[in-house]
Amino acid sequence: PATGPWQESSVYRSGINLNEIYVLLTMINNCIISVCYNVIVSVFIFQGAKKPFNEVIRANIGDAQAMGQKPITFFRQVMALCSYPELLEDDKFPDDAKQRARRILKACGGSSIGAYSASQGIECIRQDVSRYIEKRDGFASNPDNIYLSTGASDAIVTILKLLVAGEGSNRTGVLISIPQYPLYSATLADLGAVQVNYYLNEDSCWSLDIPELKRAVTEARQHCNPRVLCIINPGNPTGQVQSKECIKNVIRFAKEERLFLMADEVYQDNVYRDNEFHSFKKVLFEMGSEFSSTVELASFHSTSKCYMGECGFRGGYVEVINLDPGVKAQLTKLVSVRLCAPVPGQALLDLVVNPPQPDEPSHATFMKERTTVLANLAEKAKLTEEIFNTVPGIKCNPVQGAMYTFPQIKLPQKAINKAKEAGQEPDMYYCMRLLEEEGICLVPGSGFGQRKGTFHFRMTILPPTEKLKIVLKKISDFHVRFTKEFSE
After folding, report:
1. pLDDT, average across residues 8-25
2. Between β-strands 57-58 and 297-302, what pairing exists: parallel, antiparallel or unpaired?
3. Is domain 22-67+370-486 given the CATH code 3.30.70.980 in the classification?
4. Where do the Aminotransferase class I/classII large domain residues begin and end (predicted)?
């Protein structure tokens, strides 16, 4: 109101614009809503009540080592040496681990990973990242286009900050896939950007269809300025791997619509069966200079997923392609605000992009450990799909990559009505019942977005194989029981 007791408040007297405060609070609220998918709590206060399970199995998050995956020996040896250089005199460590540690320490201020690094990242590590990209893709990579980051998430947020601008109908629109990883929706809400949804095709193994992208852009232009297209490949939460032809079509679309491409490729080693990972950069350059010299691209990778599973070290990078020099200068300024990415994370990233070579003593053990982790994940991906598809009312697409499955579940109308009475989304109600009755923590599909009238859950395939079999059996039995309860 224009007048009233509130005018005596310190906020009013200080001249702060209450409308701006309202807008800020709205943005904060939207951000909270966007990240609430992980609100399911996996720790109960039992208060003497006996539960029909002995442990809560957290199948809701892609935290490999929390689920029992063992660290890669070579990585931890080098990190131990970097953290406590006195161990360099210990004969228990192989020579190649010591050589890597010495090289990394030499590049650090004061020969210590406790010192700040350059804001863009340690120079020799950025060079190693470039060589890794060149070997992977067969095309040149410039270390000056590499920015080391606090996991891939930090780099994704930074690039979005760089790209979001405008007001009203000129506000930046960012295309994100539905289902999507909530980092994107939360960041867009925080930045006040416009979230533009495009739906993956569930009936075609979560493929990305160009007509759907065109629909999303056309509709968005009525109320914002679409400038960015985000792709997650391999997919989270859907586990698909996009074909090379699909990626080519996306690049053509981005060029036609003048969209900045953001390629989230943190699961690039997590590819199963006969599928193959193709980086957006590789495909872009294979398409010739008409595209490789004009389409703007930022691609991301991380130490947190794949066979490494080193989430806690928070190592990652972004490579930018065809960024205007003036814009790139602003990016460098933007990353300098946070001083630098964690140096231990940078060191670990260096080991990921420059692992033991065939002529080094640690190579055989490294390859054995790497191969075992990926083979186990491939086995569990197949097992998950096969078991879920035997359950009436559960439809599970092949898990082609990443480390999740996103099955569709058919819920009786009575269950949907019951959830609405409780003020919950139907799949949230389903997941909470599963948690309470079986001690299994999943994430409801509504936390990621889904087509209206469909319901899903996301589950990680990370538990050890024998425990995963138990999890799948419990979910299957629960679904049959839940369906019967609300169908009578």
Report:
1. 44
2. unpaired
3. no
4. 78-475
